[in-house]
Amino acid sequence: MRPFHYARAEGANAAILSHQALRAPRDQPAVLAPAQYIAGGTNLVDLMRIDVMRPELVADINAMARSRAGKIEATAQGLWLGALVRMAEAADNAEVNRNYPMIAQALMLAASPQIRNMASLGGNVLQRTRCTYFRDTSYAACNKRNPGSGCAAIDGVNRRHAILGVSDQCIAQYSGDFAHALIALDATVSIEGPKGARALPFAELHRLPGETPHIETNLMPGELITGFLVPRLPWAKRSLYLKIRDRQSYEFALASAAVALDMEGETVRAARIALGGVSAAPWRARGAEQAITGQTLDDDTLTAVGETAFAEARPHGENAFKIELGQRTLARALRQAAQLEI
User: pLDDT (tens digit, 9 = 90+) per residue, 212-231?
Assistant: First the structure.
């Protein structure tokens, strides 16, 4: 790990000011800025140890937990999840489990109990890829780490890589779970930064790789997440998160599905679907949602929905199996959600 300066901020404003002490170029992505925020540190510290991230300043924002950024609140608008809330606390929360089970399940299926006790919700959605070529600096060709160098994964070992939202510059997989629940439930993210506070639909937080894989989010240098608002949708109770992986404990998804259903008898009136383990960023399957609306969940419908969900898939070599796995995972999740008693 390289030497760095450490600053403990007493609140969002102090954190932003400390971040501004090392100004990044205006067009530099937040993730490459010379100053970085730290809460749980479960991702940033790992990346600093392996020399992938090299901040000059690390600003500790844990004092923000004394503000609304550290609270879980049921409001008239919906569920507020502060960015400094720990994953374990949110997963155990009675309101989350009762009315937003998809969120609780996504958090419980992520990482180990020790990491869930440390990791913050804000940091979790900003976690970076586990692509081997990104995390091993002996590989020069990684456009996400070294823009313009190429993508070693395209012709390399890529069984775990993404098939949705990829580009010719990057096929790295977004490895998180919680973010897929947020994008499925139309959450909004609250942000503070040098230019003040703003709110952004969660679906607009992350960016697909395109021509610039190193620009991973729409956060500007100095901005930080203070929380998430999940709207109160009565049928969010009929939701679940299904995660398929190589082993049951402490493993990233090969395919996952976050689904919520509004049912009238056996007919789907509306659906929310997000797909994980297969995408370059949190992925909302809007075409699949439209395909299932007004339908009953018979085998023909589920087959058509799966085909629609993966119509844009671009497999590379070893990860072609993820198309069928993803379709089967989605079908299973939809069946299970339809059977829930609410």
Answer: 999 999 999 889 999 999 99
